[in-house]
């Protein structure tokens, strides 16, 4: 009823004015030029637009001397095209020189068509989409639109999103026209970029389910392309579902967002940004608002509006009247413009002769109004304009933070200092939750004293705690340390598609290196010449030396070939001797290992085999000792040659692993470098698992692994460990160059302030002091000093040369078997020749062999006293044959070689 009363008041005024105009034709000598306008009755702000239209005309008339604009207003429903057509024809019949409005796309089209036919200027102030198939110059010939051109306005929104670095976002819209307005925004993302989510709302006033879905998706950037009357209610419900927090950001596309009363949301922690076509603090808008209020007061009507809440359409009507009046004024100076009453249904259709000239003049004319510079393109669209980028603040409501224009894009009007001060001010007296996990030296449980009770932040100590404490003192906020429940740093689960652990968004700069056990440092003393071989090898060598000597001695006494005639020239010598006593056996083996040989050599096959195997062993050990041919003797001495990750990747003996679920694990999982890919494949396939639950577990595993396990971890944590565990060291350099940071949720508004506080602490040297305190001083730090590598690292152990001992043992075993066979063969021979039982012969020969002090024996074995009386006949026969056997043996020795030749043979064998 209030709106209807206002409309009736305006109609009554219009009738009075028309009567005066009809009767007189002129007012105070001014020529009358009627202008028509069509308004909708539904929107509340249409009344404000009508006021703006009328009082803009009044202000024009106050300054014009030759003509006066006469407003003629009609009202229609936004979706009633038929009635709209009738109203336009009525205005044409009354001789209007232009038609302003209406603001509905459904009814504006019919008005434009009629105006084009009659060549009456049609001036609109609403968003008008580009027709399918493109613009037609003929159809657009008589229309001027002061609302920003659709593509340019969409580009402004796209520039703002790019400037805000939004990688992903969700669009909430309520009509198809809304999506058309966001054409450029939908095109700024390519196929490889994060997807854009688009959600439409219907007439259901409950937006909570939609907002909860967006919250579940983790999206924090939202674009609202909805009617202004829905914006406040949607944001209220967003606040109820915790979607209006610090890390959510909203961009409102409506150019009337500044007219909404956000008083109840001014203290929300979310960032709300909007666009505005006018500078609400300009003199022009304040002057226009003053005219509106004073004019309504003269008409005995109340009207109150602040410049900060003027609707865009109202401002555009004011500017439209201004630019139209300018065109009339300047064209009327050359030729008098006279209105014509036209008919829509006339058979002889007439067109207004001045309409096209006025439109063309407006297209080339540049004006400056409440909404800034007004420039049109050839199609009558406003292609150049300025936008204010405004942000909701708790003190001033919407505050201008930047401007945009098609030439320069986004240009901020506030300094970085103002931004920083605003952020710091918002931090005052706030309490933040700082999530972390136990891990030295960053965060550790404080050691309790007897009877001491610790709670809150006092439970902890460490580098991270003191760093956060220093930042809080600079910025003036409170904090509460909390431990992450699962104790993980954070990793992405491909199945659930979620992060776990500490951080949803890790700062990607964490360096990695290798923790490995130091080699045992050997003391340098007078006996360092023993270093090429380990103690075990020396012990085994000495044992082998004694063992071979004893074996050679035993076998030589058992083998008949090593019992020789001491006087080869005497054929009737009835005794043979064995030169292989223990001293000679020791001398032979010592000479062999020293590489000097010996003048005497064994004769039996078994003893020769033992000597040969010993010479082979001595040759290998001597060359290993003198030349230290480690690479020749072993192919996997990785414990002494690991210097980098490449060395680890090339071998399979030493296992290596990382912290399960940590950033180092993620580094290897996602690396494109072939070496790291190979290392990751190796870590995944090894059983038991090489992954650990904590850095401490990895450290302990390296210590217990005795140089058979390496742990890859962040270099700073590794440095902390090597300062306290002196038997551990860092292998190689860094796998990548990175650093630590404070992780905050995506798009945190406090990032700038926190970074500034960290830089301040760095400039003051406090970060270096904290590093020195927690790495080198607290909890046992600084007790390890670098010790240069000793020669002991290169010693050969039993694992390197054990094969030589195995060959020697096998050779000696074979020689022993051959020696037994030789001994048994000799026993058989004696038994046959002496005509005694093999058992008697075996006992006799064994008894003599075990008499190690006896070095000579008769050619024929003497039987035991117990058997001598029973076998006297055999003894006499044996004595008769002794001479012939001695002669045979002497001949064998003489015909084989002389003693001098034997020495030469031994020398030659030794040389080989």
TrEMBL record:
UniProt source species: Anopheles melas
Cellular component GO terms held in the UniProt record: ionotropic glutamate receptor complex; postsynaptic membrane
Please give the chief subcellular localization of this protein.
Answer: membrane
Give the top-rank taxon of the lineage listed in the UniProt record for this protein.
Answer: Eukaryota
Q: Which residues form the Ionotropic glutamate receptor C-terminal domain?
A: 431-777
Q: Where is the composition biased (Basic and acidic residues)?
A: 872-884
| Keywords (A to Z) from UniProt | Cell membrane, Glycoprotein, Ion channel, Ion transport, Ligand-gated ion channel, Membrane, Postsynaptic cell membrane, Receptor, Signal, Synapse, Transmembrane, Transmembrane helix, Transport
The protein's matches in InterPro entries, at most eight in alphabetical order, are given as: ANF_lig-bd_rcpt, Glu/Gly-bd, Ionotropic_Glu_rcpt, Iontro_rcpt_C, Peripla_BP_I
Q: Span of the secretion signal?
A: 1-29
User: Any transmembrane segments, and where?
Assistant: 537-555, 614-635, 804-825
Family named by the database record: Belongs to the glutamate-gated ion channel (TC 1.A.10.1) family.
- Mind telling me what this protein is named? Glutamate receptor 1
Residue ranges of domain Ionotropic glutamate receptor L-glutamate and glycine-binding in the record: 441-508
An annotated Gene Ontology molecular function: glutamate-gated receptor activity
The subcellular location is: Postsynaptic cell membrane
Q: Membrane topology type, per the record?
A: Multi-pass membrane protein
Chain residue ranges for the region called Disordered: 863-890
């Amino acid at each position: 009823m209030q709106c209807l009363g206002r409309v009736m008041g305006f109609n009554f005024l219009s009738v009075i004015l028309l009567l005066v105009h009809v009767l007189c034709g002129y007012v105070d000598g001014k020529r009358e030029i009627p202008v028509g306008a069509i308004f909708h009755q539904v929107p509340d702000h249409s009344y404000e637009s009508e006021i703006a239209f009328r009082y803009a005309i009044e202000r024009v008339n106050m300054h014009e001397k030759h003509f006066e604009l006469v407003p003629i207003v009609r009202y229609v429903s936004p979706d009633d095209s038929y009635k709209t057509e009738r109203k336009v024809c009525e205005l044409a019949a009354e001789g209007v020189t232009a038609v302003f409005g209406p603001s509905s796309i459904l009814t504006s089209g019919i008005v434009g068509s009629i105006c084009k036919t009659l060549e009456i200027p049609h001036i609109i102030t609403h968003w008008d989409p580009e027709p399918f198939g493109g613009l037609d110059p003929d159809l657009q010939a008589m229309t001027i639109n002061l609302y920003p051109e659709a593509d340019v306005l969409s580009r402004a929104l796209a520039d703002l999103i790019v400037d805000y670095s939004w990688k992903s976002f969700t669009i909430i819209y309520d009509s198809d026209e809304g999506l058309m307005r966001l054409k450029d925004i939908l095109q700024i993302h390519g196929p490889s970029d994060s997807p854009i989510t688009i959600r439409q709302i219907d007439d259901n006033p409950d937006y909570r389910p939609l907002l909860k879905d967006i919250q579940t998706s983790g999206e924090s950037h939202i674009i609202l392309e909805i009617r202004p009357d829905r914006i406040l209610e949607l944001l209220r419900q967003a606040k109820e579902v915790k979607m209006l927090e610090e890390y959510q950001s909203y961009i409102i596309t409506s150019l009337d967002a500044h007219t909404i009363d956000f008083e109840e949301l001014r203290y929300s922690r979310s960032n709300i940004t909007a666009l505005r076509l006018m500078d609400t603090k300009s003199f022009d808008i304040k002057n226009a608002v003053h005219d509106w209020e004073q004019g309504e007061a003269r008409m005995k009507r109340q009207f109150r509006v602040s410049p900060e809440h003027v609707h865009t359409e109202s401002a555009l009507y004011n500017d439209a009247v201004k630019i139209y009046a300018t065109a009339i004024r300047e064209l009327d100076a050359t030729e008098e413009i006279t209105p014509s009453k036209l008919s829509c249904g006339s058979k002889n259709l007439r067109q207004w002769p001045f309409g096209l000239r006025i439109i063309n003049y407006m297209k080339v004319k540049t004006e400056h109004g409440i909404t800034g510079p007004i420039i049109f393109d050839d199609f009558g669209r406003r292609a150049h304009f300025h936008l204010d980028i405004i942000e909701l603040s708790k003190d001033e409501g919407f505050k201008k933070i930047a401007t945009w224009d098609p030439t320069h894009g986004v240009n901020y009007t506030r300094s970085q200092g103002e931004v920083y001060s605003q952020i710091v001010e918002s931090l005052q007296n706030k309490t933040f939750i700082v999530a972390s996990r136990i891990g030295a030296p960053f965060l550790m449980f404080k050691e309790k004293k007897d009877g001491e009770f610790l709670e809150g932040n006092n439970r902890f100590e460490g580098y991270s705690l003191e760093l956060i404490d220093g930042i809080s003192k600079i910025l003036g906020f409170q904090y509460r340390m909390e431990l992450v429940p699962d104790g993980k740093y954070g990793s992405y689960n491909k199945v659930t598609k979620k992060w776990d652990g500490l951080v949803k968004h890790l700062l990607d700069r964490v360096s990695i290196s290798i923790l490995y056990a130091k080699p045992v440092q050997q003391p340098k003393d007078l006996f360092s010449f023993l270093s090429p071989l380990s103690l075990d090898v020396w012990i085994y060598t000495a044992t082998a030396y004694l063992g071979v000597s004893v074996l050679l001695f035993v076998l030589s006494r058992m083998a008949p070939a090593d019992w020789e005639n001491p006087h080869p020239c005497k054929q009737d010598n009835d005794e043979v001797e064995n030169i292989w006593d223990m001293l000679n056996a020791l001398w032979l083996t010592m000479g062999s290992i020293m590489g000097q040989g010996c003048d005497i050599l064994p004769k039996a096959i078994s003893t020769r085999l033992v000597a040969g195997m010993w010479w082979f062993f001595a040759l290998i050990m001597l060359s290993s000792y003198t030349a230290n041919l480690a690479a020749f003797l072993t192919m996997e001495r990785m414990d002494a040659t690991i210097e980098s990750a490449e060395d680890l990747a090339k071998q399979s003996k030493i296992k290596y692993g990382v912290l399960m679920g940590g950033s180092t694990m993620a580094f290897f999982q996602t690396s494109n470098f072939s070496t790291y890919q190979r290392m990751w494949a190796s870590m995944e396939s090894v059983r038991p698992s090489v992954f650990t639950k904590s850095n401490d577990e990895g450290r302990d595993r390296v210590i217990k692994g005795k140089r058979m396990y390496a742990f890859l971890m962040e270099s700073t944590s590794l440095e902390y460990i090597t300062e306290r565990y002196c038997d551990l060291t860092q292998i190689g350099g860094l796998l990548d160059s990175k650093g630590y940071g404070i992780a905050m949720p995506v798009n945190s508004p406090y990032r700038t302030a926190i970074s500034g506080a960290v830089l301040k602490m760095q400039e003051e040297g406090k970060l270096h002091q904290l590093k020195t305190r927690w790495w080198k001083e607290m909890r046992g730090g600084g007790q390890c000093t670098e010790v240069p590598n000793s020669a002991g690292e290169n010693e050969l152990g039993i694992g390197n040369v054990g094969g030589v001992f195995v060959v020697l043992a096998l050779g000696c075993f074979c020689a022993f078997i051959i020696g037994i066979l030789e001994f048994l063969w000799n026993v058989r021979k004696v038994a046959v020749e002496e005509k005694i039982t093999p058992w008697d012969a075996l006992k006799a020969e064994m008894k003599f062999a075990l008499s190690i002090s006896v070095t000579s024996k008769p050619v024929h074995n003497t039987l035991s006293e117990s058997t001598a009386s029973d076998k006297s006949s055999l003894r006499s026969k044996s004595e008769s044959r002794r001479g012939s056997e001695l002669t045979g043996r002497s001949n064998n020795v003489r015909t084989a070689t002389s003693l001098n030749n034997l020495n030469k043979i031994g020398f030659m064998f030794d040389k080989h």
